[in-house]
Amino acid sequence: RLIKELFQHATTQPGRSVIFIDEIDSICRQRSSREEEHTRRMKTELLKQMEGADNSSSSDKIFLLCATNCPWELDSAFLRRFQKRIYIPLPDR
To answer: What average pLDDT does the chain have?
Structure first.
């Protein structure tokens, strides 16, 4: 419910809204049959809102920015919905 409200609130604001989700891998890990129902519902709602924000007239109203330290743990459905992925490697000496 809160995810839906967040995206609805962002679309009603004047100008462009930035939604920043840090540690997105904590929400969007690869799906498994052992997941609890509330986790599955949260992922489904986030996927639905991401797709709706990208395909509707609200695409110019919302800028979704996510960060992770574990990109290999993200679910492929989430990765497909990101328009751009930027990998920043660990610093060298």
So the answer is: 84
* Opening angle at CA 59, ends 58 and 60, nearest 5: 90
Cβ neighbours for 1, distance < 8 A, ≥ 6 positions apart = 45
How much is the pLDDT for 57? 61
Please state the separation of Cα 85 from the chain's center in Å: 12
For residues 83 and 64, give the distance between their C-alpha atoms in angstroms, rounded to a whole number: 10
Q: What is the band of 20 on the pLDDT scale with cuts at 50, 70, 90?
A: very high
